[in-house]
Amino acid sequence: MDKQFHGITPEPSDIGKLGKTSSLGNISKAFIIEPRDLVPFEIAWEWQNDWQKSLFIQRDLPQAIWLLQHPTCYTLGRGASEANLCFPPDKPPSNLYRINRGGEVTHHLPGQLVVYLVMDLRRYKSDLCWYLRQLEQVVIEVLSELGLFGERIQGLTGVWLDGYKVSSIGIGCRRWITQHGLALNVDCDLKGFDQIVPCGLRGTRVGRLDSWLPGLTVHDVQPLMRQCLANRFGLKWTEQSFLPKF
User: Fold this and answer.
1) Cα 206 from Cα 27, distance rounded (Å)
2) 86 is annotated as an active-site residue
3) Which structural domain, as residue segments, surrounds residue 14?
């Protein structure tokens, strides 16, 4: 999901500022959308496209963040190699999408918390490297709230736990307004990852949080993710009466 950004310096120069209290400036309003049901990938992608277009037209609108789960599917980033698929591209085991994010192939499925962010980076810092590090830090802070120690790996993008990759990050960005985001494996079935080379990284071990905390579910993790996002990006959640729901 994140191979395109492996060449970006993995540690921010201001790493000391990545504490749990946001230091990113003014409070920014944002919609948060948390569908109860599984959301097909193509619908979530349409939602992001629509709100990104709205922000192109009216920059002072609130930003938007979705916390959701998908039915089983695979996604390929722009320019991703089909060599990282362990199945014929025309006969995938579940839906396969080529999309407009950076990076290689990844897997979505129930039990994985997916976070999509349509953010205007000009309100923060017009720097994709900086933004990727912020997303990693959100995941690290969520894990810390659970008593777990998440780590970065030099030269890569994502978050690892005891050598297992538990979170992948892949983004798209036009005119400094983002799409896509991160996926955190909580209590998902990992067998589907055997059908791909995750993120194009051969030999990568993929993990899920309930291996460390048995019984943990997405519903346990979701409020922690919501709060860590608000802290990291200085967000104030606001009512959304006209964004689509599923």
Assistant:
1) 35
2) no
3) 3-238
